[in-house]
Design goal:
This protein has about 350 residues and is mostly beta strands. Helices cover about 10% and strands about 30% of the residues.
């Protein structure tokens, strides 16, 4: 089973919810950041806590290159960054091809979150390997938070690229939110340079949520791309109060007098007649008018309930008259009728 499927299953059982804006992780990135002068030592254990003492707060301040003496020990982080505070429960990424001996030797590493579940791929944390971290108890809440740390020794020029986790096909780099089932978003990944420049990445600014209207006139605030992806129609208003959405469906009447709510063009395509009413309760559709034959063979067009004779459901006109002629009758007995012909 692909790792992401496992992650999605794990995320789906996490307790807690997030509001729509904070759970939309579009535009997020994974920054490779090395705080200036932070030396690695195997004696320290809480490297994530050490990061919290001097956190990155602006993507323009990221440091993604380490120029140090040969064999110098340094610590760097994988930092999740968004345009605003978010809530998420899964992070996944890989490391591209690098020299783990003559470039940067990883002496220590680990995820940053209490009570998490790490799902490393084969060969992690070596070249062309990946890992995933799932929050099983406490989600990530905020921005510019570390999801992982690396400590090691700088021996030669190397570039450690944050890339897709190659343990699944296709590979994935990005985040999963805390909803059930979890939704995932891909992310751009930076790179840490050892004796060379790294690669900086910056969160993408997302458009303001706008009124997203459904065919029944319901309104929710969504980013336009999410609205259209869900089949909604984007309106320029930035609020749903007052509701700017028109009702796009109407009563559709059929020949038998039945009423169905649908879009007018679909109504006409199915042989119906669109009406202006937005509801089928009460039913605005006229009952069918058909030929009604009385005992004298006379024809009138009327509804079935008003017909005092035989209602011909398949006859729409009285011209020509579809009614059968009357049957002659007489009150005389059969015997007296026979006497007339003797």
């Amino acid at each position: 089973m692909k790792k992401m499927l496992f992650i999605m299953a794990a995320l789906s059982i996490i307790a807690g919810t997030a509001i729509a804006d904070q759970s939309n992780l579009a535009g997020g990135v994974l920054i490779a950041h090395a705080p200036a002068g932070l030396e690695y030592t195997s004696d320290a254990t809480d490297w994530c806590g050490i990061y919290a003492a001097d956190p990155l707060t602006d993507s323009n301040d990221q440091i993604n290159a380490i120029y140090a003496d040969v064999a110098a020990a340094r610590v760097w982080y994988v930092v999740a960054a968004f345009e605003s505070d978010k809530i998420w429960c899964g992070s996944q990424f890989g490391l591209g091809d690098f020299d783990p001996v003559g470039g940067f030797y990883i002496g220590g590493y680990g995820p940053c979150l209490d009570g998490n579940l790490e799902i490393p791929g084969a060969g992690w944390p070596g070249p062309n390997a990946g890992t995933a971290v799932v929050a099983t108890h406490t989600e990530w809440v905020g921005n510019y938070l570390p999801v992982y740390w690396f400590g090691g020794y700088c021996y030669g020029t190397s570039l450690l690229q944050l890339t897709e986790d190659p343990s699944q096909d296709p590979g994935f780099i990005g985040f999963g939110n805390c909803e059930a089932p979890s939704q995932v978003w891909t992310a751009a990944g930076g790179a840490m340079g050892i004796f060379t420049d790294g690669i900086a990445v910056h969160p993408e600014t997302q458009p303001d949520p706008q009124a997203c209207c459904d065919e029944l006139g319901g309104c929710v605030l969504l980013i336009p791309a999410d609205c259209e992806a869900g089949g909604g129609i984007v309106y320029p208003e930035l609020t749903c109060d007052p509701n700017p959405c028109p009702v796009l469906v109407r009563a559709c009447c059929f020949e038998d007098g039945s009423c169905v709510i649908m879009m007018p063009e679909i109504c006409e395509a199915n042989g119906g007649m669109p009406y202006e009413e937005e509801s089928c309760d009460p039913n605005p559709c006229p009952l069918p008018i058909r030929a009604c034959c009385d005992a004298e063979g006379l024809c009138v067009l009327t509804e079935e309930a008003q017909c005092e004779g035989d209602w011909l459901a398949d006859e729409y006109l009285c011209d020509p008259n579809p009614c059968p002629p009357p049957v002659a009758t007489d009150d005389a007995s059969w015997g007296s009728i026979k006497d007339l012909y003797r």
